[in-house]
């Protein structure tokens, strides 16, 4: 007989506190009805609980164990990136049917860590414009969601400033094959370290940095925020937007809603990586109402959830670490193609 236990969360972190005390072996799966932030919190909680049950240290995790039960996503947010990426649509009935039918899709997920502490698990992150916009939106939660989102974008664009950072990444496989450059000059700005792991370093002023383990589809970006990665290919899409004019940056943002290549700009660089480190360079005299960096307190946008990160953040991708109820959009496309040939 099917038994269902339901909990209505009442505050941020409620799902985490509940699942940390839950005996997950007694359940076949966990289903979350909510937006990207809520779903990301539940995924983080499932994986953190898995480490605890395995007797692993949870302050700093190099090789995490897999989540013991699959996670179902019923979209009920404003953007629903995770549901859209997993199902191809943000339709609640479609999502529920995948749970009922028991369709399982292994998915990559990342750990976000400071030099000495695990900050959280997550599927995607933005530093710079994407995080500053979310930080502004969080200060105006009294607004309706769509109005709040538009206001935050306009407000952040009005005070657009780059972040000066040192960015290092470990390319996936052959580093010479993972670059997707617009011109040869960009390679000259990458400094190889002396490490045997062939880490690459980029220094400069960046308007936005995206680190994504999944394509991140949504209505505003039908091709995805990171169309060059997949749900479970063990890679990170690293997208770096260097300092440019406000007008050019807006052109780049508008491209996400079209079928044109949003990366085809001289100030945008994309890489395929397995690890990324970001260390902002703190400068005095760089403060406005919406840009007030304090040491160890830079905002990050993790799956639509605001995280005040440490001064240095290390991101690692962990292949197929969690199972989600659903199927790959690529599989759906292949199925349609096959049916069309019959």
Protein architecture, described:
With 342 residues, this protein is an alpha+beta fold. It has helices at residues 14-20, 36-53, 81-87, 92-101, 129-139, 145-158, 175-178, 246-255, 329-341, and strands at residues 30-34, 71-75, 104-114, 117-122, 124-128, 163-171, 191-192, 200-212, 236-242, 268-280, 298-302, 305-309, 313-325. The strands form two sheets. Strands 3, 4, 5, 6, 7, 8, 9, 10, 11, 12 and 13 form an eleven-stranded antiparallel sheet that branches. A two-stranded parallel sheet has the order 1-2. A hairpin with a 7-residue loop joins strand 7 and strand 8 (200-212). Helix 1 (14-20) runs parallel beside helix 2 and helix 5 crosses helix 6.
Summarize the structure.
With 342 residues, this protein is α+β, with helices and mostly antiparallel strands. It is built from 9 helices and 13 strands.
List the helices and strands and how they pair.
Elements: H1 14-20, E1 30-34, H2 36-53, E2 71-75, H3 81-87, H4 92-101, E3 104-114, E4 117-122, E5 124-128, H5 129-139, H6 145-158, E6 163-171, H7 175-178, E7 191-192, E8 200-212, E9 236-242, H8 246-255, E10 268-280, E11 298-302, E12 305-309, E13 313-325, H9 329-341
Helix pairs in contact: 1-2, 5-6
Record keyword descriptors for this entry.
342 residues; alpha+beta; eleven-stranded antiparallel sheet; 9 helices; 29% strand
Distance between the termini: 40 Å
Indicate the structural class.
alpha+beta
- Beta-strand segment tally: 13
Shape: globular
- Which band does the percent of strand residues land in? 25-35%
How many helix segments?
9
Mean model confidence by pLDDT: 83
SSE pattern, N- to C-terminal:
HEHEHHEEEHHEHEEEHEEEEH
Please bin the fraction of helical residues. Answer: 25-40%
Q: What composes the largest sheet?
A: 11 strands, antiparallel
Rg result: 20 Å
- Given as residue ranges, the uncertain stretches (5+ residues, pLDDT < 50) are 174-195, 285-296, 334-342
């Amino acid at each position: 007989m099917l038994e269902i236990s339901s909990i209505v969360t009442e505050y941020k972190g409620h799902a985490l506190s509940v699942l940390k005390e839950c005996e997950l072996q007694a359940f076949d799966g966990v289903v979350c009805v909510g937006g990207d932030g809520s779903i990301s919190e539940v995924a983080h909680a499932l994986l953190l609980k898995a480490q605890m049950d395995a007797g692993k240290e949870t302050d700093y995790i190099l090789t995490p164990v897999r989540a013991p039960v699959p996670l179902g996503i019923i979209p009920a947010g404003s953007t629903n990136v995770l549901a859209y990426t997993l199902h191809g649509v943000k339709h609640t009935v479609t999502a529920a049917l995948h749970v009922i039918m028991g369709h399982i899709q292994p998915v990559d997920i990342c750990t976000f860590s400071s030099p000495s502490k695990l900050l959280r698990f997550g599927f995607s992150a933005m530093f710079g414009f994407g995080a500053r916009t979310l930080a502004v939106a969080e200060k105006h939660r009294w607004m309706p969601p769509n109005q709040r989102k538009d206001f935050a974008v306009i407000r952040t664009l009005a005070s657009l400033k780059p972040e000066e950072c040192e960015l290092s990444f470990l390319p996936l496989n052959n580093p010479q094959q993972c670059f997707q450059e617009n011109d040869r000059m960009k390679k000259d700005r990458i400094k190889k370290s002396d490490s045997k792991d062939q880490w690459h370093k980029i220094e400069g002023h960046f308007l936005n940095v995206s680190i994504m383990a999944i394509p991140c589809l949504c209505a505003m970006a039908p091709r995805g925020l990171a169309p060059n990665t997949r749900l479970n290919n063990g890679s990170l899409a690293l997208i770096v937007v260097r300092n440019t004019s406000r007008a050019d940056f807006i052109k780049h943002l508008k491209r996400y809603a079209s079928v044109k290549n949003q990366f085809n700009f001289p100030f945008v660089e994309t890489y395929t990586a397995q690890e990324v480190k970001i260390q902002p360079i703190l400068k005095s005299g760089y403060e406005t109402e919406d840009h007030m960096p304090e040491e160890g307190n830079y905002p990050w946008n993790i799956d639509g959830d605001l995280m005040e990160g440490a001064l240095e953040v290390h991101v690692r991708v962990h292949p197929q670490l969690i199972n989600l109820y659903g199927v790959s959009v690529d599989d759906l496309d292949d199925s349609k193609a096959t049916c069309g040939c019959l």
